[in-house]
Protein 1
Amino acid sequence: MPDARGPVPPFPAPDILYAPPSWRCIDFISDLHLHEDLPRTTQALANYLASTPADAVLMLGDIFEAWVGDDMRTQPYEAACVHFLAQAGTRLHLGMMVGNRDFLLGEDMLTDCHAHRLAAPTVLHAFGQTLLLIHGDELCLTDTDYLRFRQQVRHPAWQSTFLSHPLQARLAQARQMREASQMKQQTQTPETWADVDESTAEQWMRAAGAATLIHGHTHHPADQPFAFEGASRHVLSDWDLDHGSPRAQILRLTATGFERIPLASS
């Protein structure tokens, strides 16, 4: 059968993040999908950020279920999130990477949250390791419909036009897109969701000089050998403490290695 993948993306010039010697603990989270229908998840995140011993929390995309522009941060729910994110950002290094749901998260939001932008990809040097950080959607090459959509909405002209519309119109469009996405997911099972293309990930990892890949997006948390001998990947968990089986994990890195920490609802 022919390869159903989309075009293989070249490895973009990454940002480089060097963990300072003072860092003893780095936490990775992603796919929180924050929205007002997740009160327990939201409160658990706020509690975690207020108490984590980490020197840095690196959020690898899909922090919000939808983000239609930084003026959205004035809405009541989002303003409450900004408050606890900013409290965390004043006491630790808070890094934010955009995902497929919140790719319009911009500099005004980062400033209000006292957060640092994490490019996709970012190469992190920490505890003698070199790690490649991405959200993950960019390498799900069998999801060709999404990749066409991604190319469209990441174009500056599309974003400029979209952001020129009133906030309420953008929120309405986001709701429609979310409903369409939920209907599509109902016809699929998690086992059929696209995964990161391993051969392309290997190219990116070798280009970055990284033997470890960390990403989210797929909602299949795992720690496994990957891509080439001696290499591995760590797939972050999504968060939902409000519906069905509770899901929320922290991936923590210290000088002794990785640890997964399940987060209980508060």
Protein 2
Amino acid sequence: MLGEVLTAIVTPFREDGSIDLEAFRALCGFLLDNGSDGIVVAGTTGEAPTLTDEERFTLFEAAVDSVGERGTVVAGTGTYSTAHSIHLTERAHELGVDGVLVVTPYYNKPPQRGIVAHVEAVGAATDRPVVFYDIPSRVVVDAEPETISRLAEIENVRAVKQAKPSIEAARHVVACGLDLYAGDDDLILPFLEVGGVGGICVHTHVVGPQVKELVSSYRAGDVERAHALDEELRPAIEILKVQTNPIAIKKALQLLGHEVGGLRLPLVEADEAETAEIRDCLERLGLLAAVA
């Protein structure tokens, strides 16, 4: 519906901290040319917590215009405020996005029935597909199986981005009739094996073609090739573990010649040691040699 491989795109910034729309548009095109079926805008990787509403809307509009018919645009509209999430979703709908990503409300720790009520209210603001984002490592609250079952009853909740390694939970998502996306990049193959669609990824900024080949190989029945690619991509997974996302992936993009700028506080640039680790991973992937 939304694609097999989606990239949670970074937000490029100029030296003065403002959004670099030209670089953002260029990166949208690059990702679509290199394995991504679509992009997720203003997610955690896009530093959404530091974006104003107007900046989000500018990015949504630019993404829709840049992507066109070539792929899909999913807008990150979930916050810990239901009213605010509805506002973001309504505007994203007006701007023509293909779907919205709604995360479990963070910080205020709602009970499970509160999660359902939140997603139901946000989903009512659009007829576009809603992807529910289950990421307990960041939001603290773990969406329970019964909660996923109840979310599946909401008409336009069509998918779950699961960023936890539970295969049992992944199987439950599929059993509920929802599209399952890996929310951690190292979960793509395990989730494909239980009926998943693909992944909403970060490492596809630099290894998009390989990830798309992994998914395509598995779907074509070439499981051996899929496993080989999964192993080859280990250094890309290591990049993401160097430092909090998107610190490492932005540095990797910079090293590969992409003009994505720095980060907004409280995130900070990768230090010298971290940069060396990221460079080593890129060299083992053969990417820096290719650029040189």
Protein 3
Amino acid sequence: MAATSRVTTPFTARTTAAEILDGVDLTGRRMIVTGGASGIGTETTRALAGAGAEVTVATRDPGRAAALVEEFAGSGPGSVRAAALDLADLASVDAFVADWEGPLHALVGNAGIMAIPTRQLTPVGWELQLATNYLGHFALARGLHDNLRDAGAARVVLIGSGAHLREEFDFDDPQFERRPYNCWVAYGQSKTAEVLLAVGIAQRWAADGITANALNPGYIITELQRHMDEESLRRFGALDEAGNRVTPSYYKTPAQGAATTVLLAASPLVETATGRYFDDNQEAEVVTDKEAPGGVAAHALDPATADRLWTYAEQALTSR
């Protein structure tokens, strides 16, 4: 595959995660899905384990994954286990990394939070959305680097959002210490950072056999919307004028929303793709319209910005 060629697949926006892996054998592959106890994380876990992978659901409350663990108990080559991980708590990230032994074939950074209405800080003073969506995943990926390298050919997958189109990363005030806090600006910035993390990993870890890509899963009704107010829900088409929750026809099911994640985590069709951004199971085209319904912004793929952000994250971890 030429470095400049756009990656396309035979799948569509309505393809499910299980359909992506039809005929793919993941027996012996070890994978982590952060936030795998709900929403598209559950469907990602279910598809990967269904194809034979050993999947660890990394979640703040492992008990929430009990039914998913039981679903795969003794039912075939695939399996699911749950382990505690709070991405906003670096001590929790460090403990998770310390407990992981052996190779890791795929790290899926699925966990995230959105539209926290007021500025909240972690114990080390990081804005909560940036900490959970980006800095926690940065610390986790860096901590598991050797395990990914030891797999021989490993993949990192990061869940982005179309919200990245509207927000570049603000290096002058990333934690909203001086500028007014805006929940959507904070969310969009954190998602730009996740895409840039994929670019940074692609630049640094290619020689170790590690690829990294980001994606937009699309519109799906999940717990991610739990902090959204009525005005935002109406803007997203998830609330009608009478105040009732609705699901527009352009929304995906969780199984469809997990498809692009599974494609990047395990499909042989994209095994050499790295440093790229996908939506609807295709590599996205670069767009300049901040209100575009899809695509990827050039600011989220810029190698120099990815380098600068990597340095920022390293310094943030060092100074915690």
